[in-house]
Specification:
heterodimer; A: 294 residues; mainly alpha; ABC transporter involved in vitamin B12 uptake, BtuC; two-stranded antiparallel sheet; globular; B: 430 residues; alpha/beta; Rossmann fold; five-stranded parallel β-sheet; 14 strands
Chain lengths: 294, 430
């Protein structure tokens, strides 16, 4: 087996999981100006919602739906009842980051006595192992890649071809001007939290499927990679987050094959630092969040 | 404020100065990871503490003082452990002792506890404590490096398989897991066993597919491993990429744990787990009056574990050993007739090792009765005999074990002293 080709295939699965999560995360920042450090914990709450559905006999692919719903509702509530009131009071960005960190710790510690210290696993039929030209993937892994592709196309379609997408972009670019133009920005922001929360929920479920085991603590681990992908691509840029996920996912796997596995994240983050030095705004970002790629 | 409290503790902790046991409740601090990658460690220690406190309180307490347990979460991170330890000390002048202090945080918290004169029983396996000068430090388990030697012993001399000659080392990249690697590599090389691959994997990663593909290319006979928190992910990918076949794997004593068991069984299935998993564990007696008392009290503590079952820890060496540590500390206080740790701390080893003519006791109740009768005592507790050396380390040898379908530990063999010594010598006794 060609290890590098295999690593490339494995990287595609990582890319899929990271991109779903990173696009949701970066849209939250781009449109609502909120760096939501509780994102990883919302992923885990959603992951556990799907877990309990799965335990009750629901196929894990169907359980993506309750996972997405829980992510959407929890994210919406977090914004409505925690973040938005502080933003209205004029809390600065650093203050909002601290508040989201507090939310993250609260969610994790509320979850712990409920779901326990044990790790959990979904019942997933991985299907047969498919080998082709050095690539080694299960059908379930190919399905995760397909889910990611569909969601990324969906986000692209939403932002480019719908009135809601245009309203989101307008709100991101200049909320005051958007409001003066008759765009109901508060409603747009609510919808953004619902949509990005759903992406977060789906990401939590596929991340759990990808890792085989997950626990409350997994959320914090996921968040680091998600932020890295979002920043690499350009904070607030959905397409940038996709490219960031692609680079981080592929580089980590290839470097695990080429160097020692303990350095795989070092290599990925070294690239992140290099990009930040050469292009501090990230790969795609222009002025303003959700601006056209460039 | 905190400084004043620290000085108060350093001067004796409670209100007594060496004469009398004082009054009011006493506290045992369980300073360990209760969250983070090693979150499974804390509950094991807490279970031992609950059982010990019930045993002590059921026998009337320490001079009438009731003992309770409180968890202090280090999150398995030195940076979080230091404030946790300081808060525990400054906020609890009735602290009679501490259990836990794993390899994740021992290097940072042991000096703090020692400076504050808090007797401690630590579950650290770091070799830096092999010859420690910390007077309040006690260790009832051998250094982790000895676990590595025992794993090699299991690979070479274990039952139901020929000696494995091509060994993969797969350990987490954390301090605790990496402790095993150096001694294992040294011993394997000296013994002429091929190291197929030596992987340090990043714990908590979402997947290890490329790492597993690299490992499988070396075709190992066996995997020696400790990847707490990530073992299920890694082993599942081994099975997936190896055509549904799991490679035999030998774990450290830390893998003999219900949380770890569930994680790996969920990942690879019970049958493959039972067919391929073995581990090494400290040689525990797990019988006799001391153990019976431990099991009784652990069962009584069951209701304090809403999300799991305290009795699943009844054969777990950390739970049993820390139970013994707390009982010995309590007996030392009674023997010294003091709640001043500078007075009762030296009594702990005296009671553990016994002096010539000492009466052997196995429970706190019997120990107190013997002490009241004017006898000197030797505590042979739930885990059996203790043999502290001059560096406050006590060891009892190794069993080769597996787990049954319910996650209970099953002994399948043992390493003889000469087998163990041969490997320790090969590894340089690190």
């Amino acid at each position: 087996m060609n290890l590098y080709v295999a690593a490339l295939g494995f990287g595609l699965i990582s890319v899929s999981v990271i991109s779903i999560a990173a696009v949701g995360f970066t849209m939250q920042f781009g449109i609502t100006n909120m760096i939501n450090l509780a994102y990883g914990e919302v992923m885990m709450v959603s992951g556990y919602a799907a877990f309990y559905a799965n335990q009750a006999g629901v196929n894990i692919w169907v359980a993506l739906i309750p996972g997405a719903l829980v992510g959407a509702v929890l994210s919406f509530l977090l914004n409505r009842f925690l973040y938005a009131p502080f933003q209205r009071k004029g809390t600065n960005l650093i203050g909002m980051v601290i508040i989201s960190l507090a939310a993250s710790l609260m969610i994790a510690n509320v979850m712990l006595p409920i779901v326990g210290y044990y790790t959990s696993s979904y019942v997933v039929d991985q299907g047969p192992l498919l080998r082709s030209n050095g690539l080694v993937l299960t059908t379930a892994q190919i399905a995760i890649i397909a889910v990611a592709v569909i969601l990324m196309l969906g986000v692209h379609g939403l932002l480019r071809y719908t009135r809601l997408g245009k309203a989101m972009r307008a709100t991101a670019a200049n909320p005051t001007l958007a409001r003066n133009c008759g765009i109901p920005t508060q409603r747009v922001i609510d919808v953004v939290w619902l949509i990005t929360g759903a992406l977060c929920g789906v990401a939590g479920v596929v991340a759990g499927m990808n890792s085989e085991n997950f626990s409350v603590a997994s959320g914090a681990g996921y968040l680091i990679t998600i932020i890295a992908a979002a920043v690499l691509g350009g904070a607030g840029q959905p397409y940038g987050a996709m490219i960031g996920a692609l680079i981080i996912g592929i580089v980590t796997e290839l470097s695990a094959a080429a160097i020692a596995p303990e350095y795989k994240e070092v290599v990925a983050f070294a690239i992140l630092v290099l990009v930040m030095v050469l292009r501090p705004q990230g790969l795609l970002a222009k002025r303003g969040a959700l601006a056209a790629a460039g | 404020m905190i400084g004043a409290a620290l000085i108060l503790v350093a001067c004796g902790g409670s209100s007594t100065t060496g004469a009398g046991l004082g009054s009011g409740p006493l506290l045992v601090g369980v300073l360990a990871p209760f969250s983070g990658a090693d979150a499974s460690f804390g509950p094991r220690y807490l279970a031992g503490c609950y059982a010990a406190s019930l045993s002590i309180n059921g026998a009337g307490g320490i001079g009438g003082r009731q003992v309770s347990c409180q968890q202090f979460d280090t999150r398995g991170e030195p940076a979080d452990a230091v404030p946790a330890a300081n808060a525990m000390i400054s906020g609890n002048s009735n602290l009679m002792g501490v259990v836990g202090c794993t390899s994740d945080e021992a290097s940072t918290v042991v000096p703090i506890l020692d400076r504050s004169h808090v007797p401690m029983f630590c579950m650290t396996g770091q070799s830096e404590f092999n010859k420690t000068n910390f007077k309040y430090f006690h260790r009832l388990v051998p250094p982790d490096s000895f676990d590595a030697y025992a794993m090699i012993g299991s690979a070479l001399y274990g039952p139901n398989h020929p000696p494995y000659k091509n060994v993969a080392l797969v350990f987490g990249d954390d301090i605790g897991s990496q402790t095993f690697v150096g001694p294992a590599v040294a011993a394997l090389k000296k013994l002429g066993v091929n190291i197929a691959i030596n992987q340090a994997i990043h714990l908590g990663a979402a997947s290890y597919r490329t790492e597993v593909a690299s490992m499988l290319q070396t075709h190992p006979d066996v995997i020696l491993t400790e990847t707490i928190g990530s073992a299920g992910t890694y082993m599942k990918e081994v099975k997936q990429q190896n055509g549904g076949k799991v490679i035999p794997f030998i774990g450290t004593s830390a893998t003999i744990d219900p949380v770890w068991f569930k994680q790996v069984v969920d990942a690879i299935g019970l049958q493959d787990f039972l067919a391929n998993y073995t581990a090494v564990d400290l040689k525990l007696s797990l019988q006799g009056a001391g153990y019976d008392e431990f099991v009784t009290e652990l069962t009584a503590a069951d209701s304090k574990f809403p999300s799991s079952n305290a009795t699943t820890y009844k054969g777990k060496s950390p739970t049993v050993h820390l139970y013994d540590g707390i009982i010995m500390t309590a007996l030392a206080m009674v023997a010294a007739n003091s709640s001043d740790p500078t007075v009762y701390n030296p009594k702990i080893i005296e009671i553990a090792n016994g002096v010539s003519g000492a009466t052997v006791v196995s429970t706190f109740k019997d120990g107190v009765a013997a002490l009241k009768a004017g006898k000197s005592i030797r505590y042979v507790g739930a885990a059996g005999e203790n043999n502290f050396n001059q560096w406050n380390n006590s060891q009892q040898g190794y069993n080769l074990v597996t787990m049954d379908k319910d996650g209970n530990e099953v002994v399948i063999g043992e390493l003889t002293q000469s087998q163990t010594q041969q490997i320790i010598d090969a590894g340089g006794n690190a």
